[in-house]
Design goal:
The protein is mainly β. The protein is built from three helices and 18 strands. The strands form three sheets. Strands 2, 4, 5, 7, 8, 10, 13, 14, 16 and 18 form a ten-stranded mixed sheet that branches. It is elongated and about 85 Å long. The N terminus is likely disordered.
C-alpha cells in the first residue's frame, strides 16, 4: 500500500514539474485573480463572506503588499454586530515573488477573507451595496534603451551603399510601468566629427507609460516615480535631463520637478545628452545606452456588490 502511495506521489510530482509554463502578464505586477461576495443577496443582519485571491504575474518582486476593503467602513458590521471602523487591512507587509519561468514556477499568491454583517437596511428596500478591494504594493521596472551611433562618414557610406542602420532598441521588464520613446526619436545618432564644435548634442524624448490595470500612487505624492537613469557610451554624458547637466546618472528623487504619472497615464521627459567628439575619436560606429531602474507604489482594484434586503 505504501509503495502505491509513493508511486502516486511521484507521478503527481513529475506531472507538476512538467506542466505548462506558468502564465505571466507583461503589463501588470500584482493581479487580482478573483474577488467575490457570498452570498450575493442577503437580508439585513445576515453574514457575507468576501474573499480575494491575488498573485504576482509580473517580472519583479512585489513588496509591502496589502489589501483593503472600501465601502464597509462605518457602514457594515463585524460578526458580533459592532460597526466596522477601518478598511480591514490584510497582509500589510507581504512580499510576493514573480514567476520563475526557468523552473516553470508561478508567482507567489495570497488569499484573504473577511466575514461581515450586512448594514442595517429598513424594510421595503433592497439596495445593491458595492464593496471594493484595493491591493497596493511596491514594484520596480527595469529596462534599457540602446541607440545606435555612427560617425558622419559612416552614415554617408551606409547611405551610398543603401545599407540600413538599426533603430533604437527598447527592453522593459514585465510590469505596469514601461519606458519608451516615440518612433521619431528612434533614429540613430550621427556624430559629426568634421564639425569643429567639441561636442554633439542629442535630444531624446523619454516617456513613462502606465500600461497596467491600476495606477501608481506614492504616499502623499500621487503617481510619483523614483529611481535612476544611467548613461553609458563613448564620451557620452547628460546635458539636460531632469535637472542633471553633467555626469552619467540621474536620480529621479533629486529631480527639479518630480516625475509623476497623472490622468493622461503617461509623462514625457526631455532628456538631452552630449557626446565628446575627442573621446568618440575615429570610431565609425558604436551605441549609447540608457539603463532605467525605477520604483513606484501601485494599486489595482476590483468590486463586488451585495443586494441587501431590509427587514
Amino acid at each position: 500500500m505504501k509503495r502505491v502511495a509513493l508511486l502516486i506521489f511521484a507521478v503527481a510530482f513529475i506531472a507538476g514539474c512538467t506542466g505548462t509554463t506558468p502564465s505571466t502578464d507583461s503589463n501588470n505586477g500584482i493581479s487580482i485573480i478573483r474577488f467575490a461576495a457570498s452570498p450575493a443577496e442577503e437580508r439585513s443582519g445576515g453574514l457575507v463572506l468576501f474573499d480575494v485571491e491575488i498573485q504576482n504575474v509580473g517580472g519583479t518582486t512585489a513588496r509591502n503588499v496589502k489589501a483593503d476593503l472600501f465601502g464597509v467602513e462605518r457602514q457594515w458590521r463585524n460578526p458580533d454586530g459592532s460597526l466596522v471602523t477601518s478598511t480591514l487591512t490584510k497582509f500589510g507587509t507581504a512580499t510576493l515573488k514573480p514567476p520563475n519561468l526557468q523552473r516553470q514556477l508561478p508567482g507567489d499568491f495570497k488569499i484573504a477573507q473577511w466575514q461581515l454583517m450586512t448594514p442595517d437596511i429598513p424594510q421595503g428596500v433592497a439596495p445593491s451595496l458595492p464593496v471594493e478591494v484595493r491591493v497596493t504594493f511596491d514594484y520596480n521596472t527595469s529596462g534599457f534603451l540602446i541607440v545606435p551611433a555612427v560617425s558622419d562618414q559612416e552614415f554617408e557610406i551606409r547611405r551610398i551603399q543603401n545599407q540600413p542602420i538599426a533603430s533604437a532598441e527598447i527592453v522593459n521588464s514585465e510590469g505596469p510601468i514601461k519606458i519608451t520613446i516615440p518612433e521619431s526619436f528612434r533614429r540613430p545618432i550621427i556624430v559629426d566629427t568634421e564639425d569643429p564644435t567639441p561636442t554633439e548634442s542629442v535630444p531624446l524624448r523619454i516617456e513613462f507609460i502606465n500600461v497596467g490595470d491600476g495606477f501608481p500612487i506614492t504616499e502623499g505624492e500621487t503617481g510619483k516615480i523614483t529611481g535612476t537613469i544611467r548613461l553609458f557610451g563613448p564620451g557620452a554624458e547628460f546635458e539636460d535631463c531632469l535637472g542633471a547637466t553633467s555626469g552619467n546618472e540621474v536620480n529621479l528623487n533629486n529631480a527639479e520637478i518630480p516625475t509623476r504619472l497623472r490622468d493622461t497615464q503617461s509623462v514625457p521627459v526631455a532628456c538631452s545628452i552630449r557626446i565628446d567628439k575627442a573621446q568618440w575619436g575615429a570610431r565609425p560606429e558604436d551605441s549609447i545606452t540608457l539603463v532605467f531602474n525605477i520604483f513606484y507604489r501601485y494599486y489595482v482594484r476590483e468590486s463586488a456588490s451585495v443586494r441587501v434586503f431590509g427587514k
